[in-house]
Write a structure and sequence with these properties.
160 residues; mainly alpha; Four Helix Bundle (Hemerythrin (Met), subunit A); 5 helices; 86% helix; elongated
Length: 160
Amino acid sequence: MRQVSQILDTEHRAALDLLGRLEQALSGRSRVAAGDPRLAELSAALVVLLEHDTSRHFEFEESELFTRLTQAGEGNIAELLTEEHEAMRAVASELLPLARAGAAGTLHGAALESYRLGVLEIVERQVSHIQKETMALLPLLDDLLDEAIDSELSMRYASS
């Protein structure tokens, strides 16, 4: 596995872990309630994921990887993944203020329900997206990137 693929895979695994914990905390009978410290902790982690990690990850893929895929004749997968990024950005923009309120402990009532539904939507979208990237994008990158380009891109991503 190339360095770029390893970095992306590690980030995918961390996102899946957080999303799984959020889904578990916000669904079913054992849902967290307003004021629960777990809600604040998970919400703070979601804010970081949405504001920094996902944004940085998506921008890198779109600017550095998807253009290379398109040039190599794999434009369909690049286009599909870009469309999914846009859909997740739209959900994230609605979810982010609610996640901030959850992190601050000020999420109650209807806002908590909106947050719950938004989290479940972002979980569904991200899990599906990560599965596609794991099964299609990462293997393509391993074939597409040579050692020098892989090293250059991994250094560029690390410094961003």
